[in-house]
From TrEMBL:
<protein>
    <recommendedName>
        <fullName>Acetyltransferase</fullName>
        <ecNumber>2.3.1.-</ecNumber>
    </recommendedName>
</protein>
<dbReference type="InterPro" id="IPR024688">
    <property type="entry name" value="Mac_dom"/>
</dbReference>
<keyword id="KW-0808">Transferase</keyword>
<keyword id="KW-0012">Acyltransferase</keyword>
<dbReference type="InterPro" id="IPR001451">
    <property type="entry name" value="Hexapep"/>
</dbReference>
<comment type="similarity">
    <text>Belongs to the transferase hexapeptide repeat family.</text>
</comment>
<dbReference type="Pfam" id="PF00132">
    <property type="entry name" value="Hexapep"/>
</dbReference>
<dbReference type="InterPro" id="IPR018357">
    <property type="entry name" value="Hexapep_transf_CS"/>
</dbReference>
<dbReference type="Pfam" id="PF12464">
    <property type="entry name" value="Mac"/>
</dbReference>
<feature type="domain" description="Maltose/galactoside acetyltransferase">
    <location>
        <begin position="5"/>
        <end position="59"/>
    </location>
</feature>
<keyword id="KW-0677">Repeat</keyword>
<dbReference type="InterPro" id="IPR039369">
    <property type="entry name" value="LacA-like"/>
</dbReference>
Amino acid sequence: MKTEKEKMLTSEYFNPLDKQLSDDRLAARKLLHELNHNSPEEFQQQKEITRKLLPNSSKATFIQPPFYCDYGYNIKAGKGVFFNFNCTLLDLGSIEIGTKTMIGPNVQIYTAVHPKNAEKRATGIEKGNPIRIGKNVWIGGNTTICPGVTIGDNSIIGAGSVVTKDIAANVMAAGNPCRVIKELLNETKSLS
């Protein structure tokens, strides 16, 4: 029989009030408190806290506090990923972010899914649908990325967008719901 954590890690419905998961969230919140209240000149200490909070991410991931997440260990950010002020990642599902991706201020990345059936939803169970963001992506400020979305390499998501469906590589997309505005293939090739 699977533990609640094993269910969470395999994108199945689980009970978030499970002791192990509650302990994991508390550990993350303690690290978030340290990170978000760290003195700005203590850059090395901030890097050490980030490594503990995001153990499956590159050591070259940079967070501009404040920053919020549920667990931290479900976030896999590549080398050179930058999180600007006030990002929130509900990482009960995995969140993978490719190298050199820039995440603007106030970006919300939500993997959390609750049952559609009201009686089941009232039990408190939830699951996470993984989110994948490619390399060299630029996510504009105040964007919301919904559960299960994939954003392809080199794409730009305009500020204030609500990304409800997959976005291809090498495009500029924006809006609510977010949709492709134009291809960036020529711009991408000219930079190579």
